[in-house]
Amino acid sequence: MDQSGSMKRRMTTPPPSERSTLRRLPQRASYEEAVVHSILDEGIVAHVGVAVDGQPYVLPMVYGRVERDLYLHGASVSRLARQLALGVPVCVTVTLLDGLVLARSAFHHSVNYRSVVVLGTAVLVTDEAEKTRALEAITDHLLHGRWAEVRPPNAQEMKATSVLRLPLVETSAKVRTGPPRDDTEDLALDCWAGVLPLQLVARPPENAPELREGIPPPAYLPKTRAGQ
Amino acid sequence: MDQSGSMKRRMTTPPPSERSTLRRLPQRASYEEAVVHSILDEGIVAHVGVAVDGQPYVLPMVYGRVERDLYLHGASVSRLARQLALGVPVCVTVTLLDGLVLARSAFHHSVNYRSVVVLGTAVLVTDEAEKTRALEAITDHLLHGRWAEVRPPNAQEMKATSVLRLPLVETSAKVRTGPPRDDTEDLALDCWAGVLPLQLVARPPENAPELREGIPPPAYLPKTRAGQ
Q: Which residue ranges does the record annotate as region Disordered (chains A, B) (predicted)?
């Protein structure tokens, strides 16, 4: 694994726990809260891990953040939501993929990415006001401004939805940026090297088939990035 | 969680194990091997979960596939590689994000996605020929055609790299496609609904700073998708 080209940021707000301290490539680690939050805010899907009898399960979930809390939600009857509600250890990982790092040697190939790992124990949210705020955060995390326009959950929907809170205490970020860093003796090789940047872009919105006439896509949709 | 708009594909090659059978929204489940392989082949980063003393850890890793085996690699000295090499249960999840599903009700918001979950026990690859094939698969998974052009790993690099094989036996796929499906009574709301498609696109390649003059980006780089 390539150890170079990394952005070094290492601060201690909050200080990392022993088990959330990166041992490999510590120059890629960031404990700065602002970095952790910015990665979480840019991501859309988290990969949530729980272990059942030693077998880990990792499932994609949407999420939201309110200050120093991460919120997950799921159907109340789902296996994962029930498991999480038991108060088991959880790991929530969000990864943003920024590019392919194409070195002259196979060994130094890598990806540019920004990732956050959150360890902790999720807690079932039972307070209705907090639950509503969390669902607002999750909805607006998908698309900022959406909550204000849509029909909020009714009592039946609230009951059918479990919301879980995971404090952003044991967090770590890992970031790789920049070009490949080949061994000096490989620089003379007749092989292209560089980065292929990758970006998640929005395409033009597609109206729902039953959409009433005369309702345009909302202004808060991100501008389609095609062509930029 | 939204239960609609799903693509139903359910076949049994190989038959799912009890623990890899989806219980929630089974209409989103696919056990068809070709679907599992196509999702794995399109993904770039997997989220790999292992549990240590009941605490799950989920880390992003690149990977490769050779027929019915998934390969992971890491620095031999890394915690995760050493943990995996012990023969512990592992979960490898790959998720492709295809769009935001924007319903008229908060409750029916969702994402369009394709995901694969692989359960099993990874095995350390000790055969040098298989290890080389796996590294070729991982490199070409990043960018098809790359392996043939780059300097292959030397003995020291091979020693510094652990390769792990996870058989694609206990696999399941989950797919959501299509528009939001709101409750009938919400269709009259004065709220836009639809899908915002998302796509991971390549931007123009960036040459490494020390690139020798006269070496153009290779033809096997994907065409930049901007503007399409």
A: 1-26, 207-228
B210 touches chain A (CB under 8 A): yes
Which residue of B lies nearest to A142 if distances are taken between CA atoms? B100
Contact B55 A200 (CB under 8 A): no
Structure tokens, B116: 């694969």
Please give the Cα distance from B68 to B32 (Å, whole number).
13
Helices then strands (H, E): number in chain B?
4, 11
Residue among A189, A192, A170 at smallest CA distance from A180 = A192
Element (H, E) at A65: strand A55-66
The token pair that represents A81 in the structure block: 């939501």
Tens-level pLDDT at each residue, chain B (228 residues):
333 334 333 333 445 676 766 666 666 666 689 999 999 999 999 999 999 988 999 999 999 999 999 999 999 888 888 888 888 899 999 999 999 999 999 999 999 999 999 999 999 999 999 999 999 999 999 999 999 999 999 999 999 999 999 999 999 999 999 999 999 999 999 999 999 999 999 999 999 999 999 999 999 998 765 443
CA distance A177 to chain B (A): 12
Q: Determine the residue among A24, A55, A117, A133 to mutate to test chain B binding: the one whose Cβ has the most chain B Cβ atoms within 10 Å.
A: A55
User: B62 CB near a chain A CB, below 8 Å?
Assistant: yes
CATH of A26-197, one of 2.30.110.10, 3.40.50.1260, 3.40.50.1860, 3.40.50.300: 2.30.110.10
Residue B49 is nearest to which of A23, A56, A142, comparing CB atoms? A56
